[in-house]
Design a protein that fits this description.
- The chain is built from 14 helices and eight strands.
- The protein is of the alpha/beta class and 338 residues long.
- The protein folds into three domains: 110 residues, Nucleotidyltransferase, domain 5 (2-Layer Sandwich), CATH 3.30.420.10; 88 residues; 127 residues, no CATH class.
Length: 338
């Protein structure tokens, strides 16, 4: 008899549901988030378990790692791609755990990627860098807004990054504005140091693999962005076609069409938000420093708007990355824009 387990995981507890190959419920119990308790519950079924399914929640690391260390066949369910039968009146943790096991038994489970444990911590450190980059951007925009509001002119991001506190004192005649501006500058400097420290550590710990080094031939992609793409993707072999990769990078349109008309939107969050950010960053840099990329952006912008134009360019760069990594060839500008 073959058995299948689903675990509905929460912040402090989990519910384990186990079924057999006839969809009969064999075991169901709520447990605290303790690996020993989970192992004890699964032990009687270990020899017959075809797989243990865990939903890809924010805290799945400890559970999947712990069970893999004890040789359980693990599968990570992609929650954004799972659609339950909408006619159900009532669902709960118990139902969800058995539903995960049921989908796996039928071979229809939308699976996520179990990122190798030994590489995961450095990837997460680079993700933390993005968190601080966004906070720094918020501080820069706040300072820009203050300058425009009170002085009637715009100050560039590069100038703001170079400002010292003594420069701020000359900008405003109000001591309250000076204090607010100094707070912005102090925070920007503090976050910049953290970002540089993280970059230094990542560059020391991880070397850009040869197949990913070619990404730096794409306009807009430097070493940090190439490392981000490498650590988020892990291997190009995960993606069968370029469309799969472009979709994973959230570069494709999520709208739902019927008879040529828009009937709604599908799940925009299905994919990797860090890769989506990396390619948007690459597109913004490409517009600044590559003439053909700038022309493509301006043409799209004239028809729609700047956001759509940048997303269209990021999609092109993501697709180019796929072929560069798959075929191990440098970037060809003519093939991308002509």
């Amino acid at each position: 008899m073959e058995t299948y387990a689903g675990i509905d995981l929460h912040s402090s507890n989990n519910y384990i549901g186990i079924i057999n190959d006839k969809d009969e419920k064999l075991f169901g119990k709520r447990l605290p988030n303790n690996i020993d308790d989970v192992l004890m519950a699964l032990e009687p079924y270990k020899d017959t378990l075809k797989g243990v399914v865990v939903e890809s929640t924010y805290n799945w690391y400890w559970l999947v790692d712990g069970l893999q260390e004890h040789d359980y066949p693990m599968h990570l369910a992609n929650p954004s791609a799972i659609k339950q039968y909408e006619g159900m009146k009532h669902t709960d943790d118990k139902w969800d755990s058995f539903w995960l096991a049921h989908m796996f038994r039928l071979g229809i489970l939308p699976e996520g990627y179990i990122y190798p444990k030994e590489k995961r911590h450095i990837r997460d450190l680079l993700r933390r860098r993005l968190f601080f980059v966004r906070q720094r951007t918020a501080q820069i925009l706040s300072f820009q807004s203050m300058v425009t509001r009170n002085l009637g002119r715009k100050m560039s991001v590069n100038i703001i990054k170079q400002l010292a506190k003594i420069d701020v004192e000359k900008l405003f005649d109000s001591p309250h504005l000076v204090l607010a501006a100094k707070s912005n500058i102090d925070t920007i400097d503090f976050l910049t140091k953290i970002i540089k420290d993280i970059e230094k550590e990542v560059l020391f710990q991880v070397k850009l693999r040869d197949e990913f080094a070619l990404l730096q031939t794409i306009p807009g992609i430097g070493k940090i962005l190439a490392l981000t793409i490498m650590l988020e993707m892990d291997t190009i072999n995960r993606f069968e076609k370029v469309g799969n990769y472009s979709s994973y990078c959230r570069c494709v349109n999520s709208q739902r069409l019927s008879d040529g008309k828009k009937k709604g939107e599908n799940n925009r969050k299905n994919g990797n938000r860090y890769l989506a950010w990396a390619y948007v960053e690459a597109a913004n840099f490409a517009v600044r420093y590559n003439a053909k990329a700038k022309r493509f952006y301006q043409k799209k912008k004239s028809k729609r708007n700047s956001i759509v134009a940048i997303k269209a360019l990021s999609n092109k760069i993501a697709r180019a990355s796929y072929y560069i990594l798959r075929d191990q060839v440098p970037f060809d500008e003519a093939r991308l824009f002509d």
